[in-house]
Structure formats: structure tokens, C-alpha cells
Amino acid sequence: MDDLYEAVENANEKKKLLLLEFIGSTSYRSTCEFMKPIVESVANTYKNKADFCTVDVDNNEFKDLAKAFRVQALPTFLIIVDYKMVEQIVAPDKQELIKSINKAAPTK
């Protein structure tokens, strides 16, 4: 959980958005694994606009966080800007993810 707080703080300090990816390492594994190369590609392309953080809901430490954000399907992506969730995206394709990042990214 400390790593997650650090990711939120770092993104805010750098004036970037934070993309939280909620995955399941055991539940929904195949769907989440399918998204992995897509997320890596987008993260590499948008490293100047966004920080990326993965949250495994199968880790007991994050179950309450997933409930708090009403994560009901995996993978779910939350875009956080200035400590606020601005968008929730469920199982997007690459273009939808890119469009959401471009729309939410703070301008420097």
C-alpha cells in the first residue's frame, strides 16, 4: 500500500496523471494478461504524461481499495489527476485507453 501512496504523490508532484490498473493475478488472469502488452506499450508512449501503477485485487491489502472505487470487473483502469479519480475505464482497447489519457492529462 505504501508503494501506491508513493505513486499517487509522485504523479501529483510531477503534474502527471496516474493510471491505476486493477488486475487479478489469479481471478481474471487471462483477461489481465491479454492487456499487459497493451498497457506496457501505452505506458512507454505516454511516460511523459502519465505514471502507471498496477493494483492486484487478489492481494488482500487491496480488496478494500477495489471496493472503495467500485471496481466490479477486471481489468479496470482509474485515471487519477490531482488526487481525484477523473475516469474509470473497464477492459478498454488500446485506442480507448489512449483517448482517455489524452483527455485527462494535465497540461504543464
From TrEMBL:
State what protein this is by name: Thioredoxin domain-containing protein
Q: Which residues form the Thioredoxin domain?
A: 1-106
InterPro entries (UniProt xref): Thioredoxin-like_sf (IPR036249), Thioredoxin_domain (IPR013766), Thioredoxin_H-type-like (IPR050620)
Q: Which domain of life is it from?
A: Eukaryota
User: Taxonomic lineage of this organism?
Assistant: Eukaryota, Viridiplantae, Streptophyta, Embryophyta, Tracheophyta
Q: Which CDD domains match?
A: TRX_family (cd02947)
